[in-house]
Amino acid sequence: MTTMSAAPPLFLLPLADRSGASAGLLLACAEGDAGDWPLDALQALAAGGPCFYRLPCAAAPALQQAGWQALPAGAVARLDDGLDRDLPPAIAWLEGDWYLAPPPKPIGQQAASRALALRLVQLVNADADNHEIEAVLRQDPTLSYHLLRLVNSLGVGGGRRVSSFSQAILILGRQQLRRWLNLMLFASRADDPRASMLLSRAALRAHAMELLARCAGLNRTDQDQAFMAGMFSLLGALFGLALDELLQPLVISDAVRAALLARDGELGALLALVEQAERGDFAALSAGLAALQIDVNDYNRCIADATLWMQGVAAGAGRSHA
Q: How many helices (H) and strands (E) does the chain have?
């Protein structure tokens, strides 16, 4: 059963630097002090890059001890309609949903690369033969490069450097490889200034949903599907196409499809939960946690751990801290 907690639910929003690269974190939470927040994880996050909270903040003393800083009001700009390159010199950080704006219509090589990426999504989720997937990767070396860079970013090879696609298959197995290939799509758009922030948001959503699914008592298969639902929820933004159109040729479960298109079922409830946290709708978030019988402290630990994982993925994909 859900228990009462003195700590409010929190969420950790990726912040972009002036160039649009994911480079920091901004804490969002309901009113209240730090209570039983996972301060060890918050301290680890601060060790990995700039971490900020907004004033006034009752939890400021605890956050400062964990290495977090107050966000200077004049140093951040909110963008929602696209990346503005003509910013005042004092602006160091960007918040908002600017990276969810549709990308420019691709032309030439960009269009060819996007078509290959879409083909790769279809093959991976249809559990195609390895040689079919490798044939697509060979047509765009950038895809292969980003796959190997991501796979190596968190030491998934058990200390071994993964240097080829075939080695990645051997070490990871098909299920984990499918996860990394899909995640890699968000990291490989060198022509897209939104790529870094989209990768951060997709990685955070996916792993947060996976961990929350475990807290909700779902089995391992459902946890894997929660990860996929979180990641696929941003495919429409990545490709600038309607999500239902993108999902049509993909082999995915009915549960994932219902979650993505209608927020139905257990996976849909988890996706709605993360989206409420991203919007800062903490009243709806608290109600959703109670409905799913997830304790607030467990939720906060899931979000902190998912953000730590995202931080490692983003660093492996080439993020540099400002």
A: 14, 6
